Amino acid sequence: MARVVQKFGGSSVADADSIKRVAKRIVATKQAGHEVVVVISAMGDTTDELMDLAFRVSPQPAPRELDMLLTAGERMSAALLAMAIGDQGLSARSFTGSQAGVITTGTHGNARIIDITPGRIVSALQTGDVVIVAGFQGVSQDTKDITTIGRGGSDTTAVALAASLGADYCEIYTDVDGVFTADPRIAPNARRIPRISYEEMLEMAACGAKILHLRCVEYARREHVPVHVRSSFTTKEGTWVTDLEEGSVMEQAIISGVAHDRGEAKITITGVPDRIGEAARVFEAIASIEVNIDMIVQNVSAVSTGRTDISFTLPKTDGKVAVAALNAIKEEVGFDDILYDDQIGKVSVVGVGMRSHPGVTAKFFAALAEAEVNIEMISTSEIRISVVVDQDDVDRAVRAAHTAFGLDSEEQAVVYAGTGR
Ligand code: ADP
Ligand code: ASP
Ligand code: MG
């Protein structure tokens, strides 16, 4: 007997029939003799629809109320799934994140899980029930308000629960057959990666591969939770995300995947006086509003003016507040202007093999040039190279890099459901 956490994403429970289909799968796991804890997402595009609704009611919804609203989506699917499992002859009980003991920080919309007190889950398991937990939500330790843990956060709920319950593994059921070498919606000849290290998956997720939530991978790596990403529409083996094994096949691959991200924007501050401490002042202003920045480029200052330009990228959702914070220090720093561009995309190649193989950058850039993609910014880590390009060039850049690194497969990847929203 194993203790298993199974997470089903929104596209796997988009309507009544899908909920019954997922219920069947859970019942089969339970009947095979395992203890099952299920983490469930909101149905289909419910979260986006609730978000749209909130913005139609108010241009700036109060973050506390937005969390109350969004968590309702997961609560609906949890209850519906429990009903469907009940109809198939097993006893199931649904819990909100708060009832399941998911304790978080108080940052609405992007809270962090700080503890799990799974008392109620453990007792429900002891009485033989299937436990269903509403994903992506918790309760703030300080304010006791309901929080959400960031878009795509149900993956993190699942891994955090798996860690705290000492589960044998965590299954993430979704609308594709696993983690692929690129998003199959963009690169149809992407190939499934049978096994990937936490480290590489972390870079892929950080670079926008939304197949797994970034914090979920961080959690899994820290707690050594084996994660199996697979399709809820087939019984095929998917991708195992685990520790890197010595001398494994993975180490041979120079590039394990290409990731892209359309969620960032670029801010350029022009004419910044080239004096010690000015860059610090600019980034202190951004840090004080708790915005995370990603890439930074500073040019050499022009000799004639003694001024330089600084560009950086940040999540699009933080664009407005960041521009406002910079405007507030414009006089003090004495720069010329702020340019804001949200029509950009980031494309990254990721692979541990890069450490020992020279020429990866040259190959990547040559592929982009051949595809007539202009590079606006560049950043690298030990196992990643990222570029910022025009949003319209993202798909072409992903496909060009995928082909250049020999990742193309003969077979077409299947996308079973979902709108890709
Ligand atoms: P869920 O609703 O199950 O959480 P998501 O939409 O969050 O599903 O994530 C699954 C989607 O992630 C896929 O449909 C695919 O378009 C996208 N994706 C992005 N990068 C990858 C990748 N490298 N491998 C597989 N899927 C990817
Ligand atoms: N429903 C939430 C979202 O769409 C959380 C999740 O699905 O993981 O972001
Ligand atoms: Mg997801």
From TrEMBL:
<dbReference type="GO" id="GO:0009090">
    <property type="term" value="P:homoserine biosynthetic process"/>
</dbReference>
<feature type="domain" description="ACT">
    <location>
        <begin position="267"/>
        <end position="343"/>
    </location>
</feature>
<comment type="similarity">
    <text>Belongs to the aspartokinase family.</text>
</comment>
<comment type="function">
    <text>Catalyzes the phosphorylation of the beta-carboxyl group of aspartic acid with ATP to yield 4-phospho-L-aspartate, which is involved in the branched biosynthetic pathway leading to the biosynthesis of amino acids lysine, threonine, isoleucine and methionine.</text>
</comment>
<feature type="binding site">
    <location>
        <position position="47"/>
    </location>
    <ligand>
        <name>substrate</name>
    </ligand>
</feature>
<dbReference type="InterPro" id="IPR001048">
    <property type="entry name" value="Asp/Glu/Uridylate_kinase"/>
</dbReference>
<feature type="binding site">
    <location>
        <begin position="174"/>
        <end position="175"/>
    </location>
    <ligand>
        <name>ATP</name>
    </ligand>
</feature>
<dbReference type="GO" id="GO:0005524">
    <property type="term" value="F:ATP binding"/>
</dbReference>
<keyword id="KW-0808">Transferase</keyword>
<feature type="domain" description="ACT">
    <location>
        <begin position="349"/>
        <end position="421"/>
    </location>
</feature>
<dbReference type="Pfam" id="PF22468">
    <property type="entry name" value="ACT_9"/>
</dbReference>
<dbReference type="InterPro" id="IPR054352">
    <property type="entry name" value="ACT_Aspartokinase"/>
</dbReference>
<dbReference type="Pfam" id="PF00696">
    <property type="entry name" value="AA_kinase"/>
</dbReference>
<keyword id="KW-0028">Amino-acid biosynthesis</keyword>
<dbReference type="InterPro" id="IPR036393">
    <property type="entry name" value="AceGlu_kinase-like_sf"/>
</dbReference>
<comment type="pathway">
    <text>Amino-acid biosynthesis; L-methionine biosynthesis via de novo pathway; L-homoserine from L-aspartate: step 1/3.</text>
</comment>
<keyword id="KW-0547">Nucleotide-binding</keyword>
<keyword id="KW-0418">Kinase</keyword>
<dbReference type="GO" id="GO:0005829">
    <property type="term" value="C:cytosol"/>
</dbReference>
<dbReference type="GO" id="GO:0004072">
    <property type="term" value="F:aspartate kinase activity"/>
</dbReference>
<comment type="pathway">
    <text>Amino-acid biosynthesis; L-lysine biosynthesis via DAP pathway; (S)-tetrahydrodipicolinate from L-aspartate: step 1/4.</text>
</comment>
<dbReference type="GO" id="GO:0019877">
    <property type="term" value="P:diaminopimelate biosynthetic process"/>
</dbReference>
<dbReference type="GO" id="GO:0009089">
    <property type="term" value="P:lysine biosynthetic process via diaminopimelate"/>
</dbReference>
<dbReference type="InterPro" id="IPR005260">
    <property type="entry name" value="Asp_kin_monofn"/>
</dbReference>
<dbReference type="InterPro" id="IPR045865">
    <property type="entry name" value="ACT-like_dom_sf"/>
</dbReference>
<keyword id="KW-0067">ATP-binding</keyword>
<dbReference type="InterPro" id="IPR018042">
    <property type="entry name" value="Aspartate_kinase_CS"/>
</dbReference>
<feature type="binding site">
    <location>
        <position position="74"/>
    </location>
    <ligand>
        <name>substrate</name>
    </ligand>
</feature>
<feature type="binding site">
    <location>
        <begin position="7"/>
        <end position="10"/>
    </location>
    <ligand>
        <name>ATP</name>
    </ligand>
</feature>
<dbReference type="InterPro" id="IPR001341">
    <property type="entry name" value="Asp_kinase"/>
</dbReference>
<dbReference type="InterPro" id="IPR002912">
    <property type="entry name" value="ACT_dom"/>
</dbReference>
<feature type="binding site">
    <location>
        <position position="185"/>
    </location>
    <ligand>
        <name>ATP</name>
    </ligand>
</feature>
<keyword id="KW-0220">Diaminopimelate biosynthesis</keyword>
<dbReference type="InterPro" id="IPR041740">
    <property type="entry name" value="AKii-LysC-BS"/>
</dbReference>
<protein>
    <recommendedName>
        <fullName>Aspartokinase</fullName>
        <ecNumber>2.7.2.4</ecNumber>
    </recommendedName>
</protein>
<keyword id="KW-0457">Lysine biosynthesis</keyword>
